[in-house]
Amino acid sequence: MSRKRPWDEEGFRCPYLDTINRSVLDFDFEKACSVTGNNFNVYACLVCGKYFQGRGKHTQAYTHALQESCESHHVYMNLGDGRTYCLPDGYEVIDSSLKDIQNMLDPSFSASRIATLDTVPVYSRGVDGSDYMPGLIGLNNIKHTDFVNVIVQSLARVPPLRDFFLLPANYKACTAPLVKEFGALIRKVWSPYNFKGQVSPHELLQAIMHASGNRFKIGVQADPMDFLAWLLNALHTALGGTKKQGSSIIHKTFQGTVKITTHKAGSDEVTEAETPFLYLTVDVPPAPLFKDALERNIIPQVPLFACLTKFDGQSFQEMMNGDRRRYVITRMPRYLIVHIKRFSKNTQQFLEKNPTIVNFPVRNLELGQFTQLSEEEKAKGASTKYHLMCSTQHDGSPESGSYRVFVHFKANDQWYEVQDLHVNGVHPQLISVSESYIQFYEAAT
Length: 445
Hints:
This is Ubiquitinyl hydrolase 1. Keywords: Metal-binding, mRNA processing, mRNA splicing, Nucleus, Spliceosome, Zinc, Zinc-finger. Residues 137-444 form the USP domain. The chain is of the alpha+beta class. It contains 12 helices and 25 strands. The strands form 7 sheets. Strands 12, 16, 20, 21, 22, 23, 24 and 25 form an 8-stranded mixed sheet that branches. Strands 2-1-3-4-5 form a 5-stranded antiparallel sheet, covered by helices on one side.
């Protein structure tokens, strides 16, 4: 008769659970074996934090558990499903004390928890002693990736988009790594289970580089507006979106329509067309060339309404081919993105930045004068009044500057400045006089 193994006995508890070192665990990076580089069936050693492939005999994890230099490295968690094993014995460790590690590896949210994200502030403390608020957490800048960080922070504020990606069941049929990693990062940003008061977007960046064909990559600064336009389209397509209105969460959240009236050059021909948009681009008046009495460059200020006259349905925009166009918004999105065009190339093809300050209200931005809503839209009670959610600002020279974002945290009705890992409170009055570049607005209800 075979002898019963200790771990088969009722009430057995793995004797190595107290060797787990939570301070070295970091699941933000690519889940690949530290020896072979393979990313299939990878386990994390919960003692040293390193990744190893497999758990059977002759695998990297099994070998690591037997090494004399790694005495007591016996507890391993599968990075795919969170199941934990003791090696080399091979039995599964089922213990409630592992729940916090599983939650950090793959945060999950209930519908009831999601419903309170914007009304009940939550305060958490990491294993490293850092305090943070889920949803308001710093992102690591992995060498000139602040252009990604400000966009992730902005999109993480948008309730329907955030709520969609907090529940992986909403996109379980999608196999695109970009969608999977974007969802994983949004869950980590809002997770109360992080062991640190910061998150690294490394795995999302890897997916972005692959999906964009290295158009956006680590180590090379890029324009966050270019990145945002690409990301929205890439997510829409990966989620099965089509040209049909509302065919993805991206279009349901951000898509509006604008009517374009074109007066053909040299003729009386006039055409009208309605075109969907995910964001509105507005031009900034050229900055003056003169200086004040102290030889300082004068930085002018203009109201956002002056920039939006492009969409009043009356003002003509001159096209390169001589055509003249008028624009007016015919359907307002629930969430409006405004791109304040600050960068352009001069005649020598050098990038220039317009420093003009665009003034705007943080609340109650009324856009009714720029709309011609259909009767259907009016019947739906479509709002033309918006509240600012976040505003990205560029600092420094056009070629070597950096980006930061001001975000409104609904749960405590406070504004914060977020620049990579740094999160600081800020007065809303300072936001409306900054060199705003990308703005996210929510329709007032």
